[in-house]
Amino acid sequence: MTYREVLENARKTILNCKACPECNGLGCGNTLPGPGSKAPGNGAHDNWAAWKKIRLNFDTFTEDGPVDTGCSLFGREFSLPLMSGPIGSMTQYSKDDITVAFNDGVMEGTARTGTIDCFGDGVTPETISGALESMAKYHPAAIPVFNPMPNASIMKKMDLFEDTDALAMCVVVDSAGLSHWKHIGEQPGTKTVADLKELRAHTKKPFLVKGIMTAKGAKQALEAGADGIIVSNHGGRALADVPGTAEVLPEIVEAVKGEIKIIVDGGIRHGVDMVKALAIGADAVLICRPFAVAWFGGGAEGVRTYVELLKNEFSEAMYMVGARKTADLNPDMLRFQFS
Ligand SMILES: Cc1cc2nc3c(=O)[nH]c(=O)nc-3n(C[C@H](O)[C@H](O)[C@H](O)COP(=O)(O)O)c2cc1C
Question: Which of 8, 226, 250, 288 has the fewest beta carbons under 10 Å from its own?
């Protein structure tokens, strides 16, 4: 299956998304509910555009040799520094609740490609029970991502994953700003460092905080005892007119690099974007919307096709900037064009 076929297939069934050849946030705009950005609808595009303001420096005066795209994270080895993004409810893309089937397909696809799967805790109990069943089938490197509900509720959900082979546990803090929660029972809210400390203490697994956009926030996550942060603005869905994640990544790296794992998402679409993120200092990237398109276009096989495409692009870009392994990537390989 080619990636072009994946896109063509996806267009037959996916709702609120045009499965654009380039997923740059322009096609979905402010479709919320749907996969777009909060009104006026510029957030996803701003993320995408920020990566384009960073350019790559050729370096072919390097000893020749094969490229190794592998990385290690939280004690496990992966073929690529890549995580699929959590989508708590696939009703954003479909009239039916297909979230369990989506999580199943992405877990199979990421397990087959040696990459990491993040999945959302969703809005129905079946989302979690389904995820547990899929984890038992494929043994993906899975990370449950819990919305910022009251701590007691998050801890109950954490307990369900404590004795599984989940790679880590994650709480997403910026979902507090999602307007569609207003129509669903339990309400999310903002978290204090003390709240995060309590969650951190509740699990023996590595603990991640998703939704960090400032050096201050990164330091607070560190203070709470987090093992990793996901630099993210929820794909522009929680607040408009925030900076692109590529714009804030350098100052966050400067503040906490080496003390905590740094993952970044938001508009990362190609191997060149992955090179930029790792060269700035991220340990891995997370990609969300294209995984939904890949799954609509071919289930687990569509996911595999997309990951293989990314792997080829990442490997080729690494080769041309003079990196032979991911640890070689560094800021000298980049030229910044932020105004
Ligand atoms: C339809 C949709 C649903 C999402 N649901 C969740 C969620 O439940 N939990 C979460 O942490 N992030 C959620 N996100 C945010 C993504 O995981 C990711 O942070 C964001 O989309 C940026 O990545 P992207 O530009 O590659 O899409 C959702 C995003 C979309 C588009």
Answer: 8
